[in-house]
Design goal:
Layout lengths: L4 E3 L2 H14 L3 H15 L15 E3 H5 L3 H14 L6 H15 L6 H5 L2
Antiparallel strand pairs: 1-2
Helix pairs in contact: 1-5, 2-5
Amino acid sequence: MLPNRVSLSQIATSKLRYLKSQTGLSLNILSRIAIMLTIKDGNELQNTGVNDCDGQILSRDVLFGDYQDIYSILIKEHLESNKIDMNVGDAISAMVEIGVFKMGHVKSLLDLAKL
């Protein structure tokens, strides 16, 4: 179900790098948090405006680690329950984009924990 690679936008990549500098967390961990924030809030993905995928490319193994099966189920359920007809790779990119936007105010691990 999960694609071998996920391409992020340049904007999401820049925001993730900034968040990494503020929190010390790696891009893959921050991306996982972004995905979960999007799922938690039940956001619509079609209107995210992710047109470029010229940013960071994360392999499935790096992005999801040992939790690939769990993320696969959660993402599939989110797409089906919200009737989102979208390529899974594009959906994951959109989820990261939305989640990273929600983390825009984060300046520390404490801020991140409050989400």
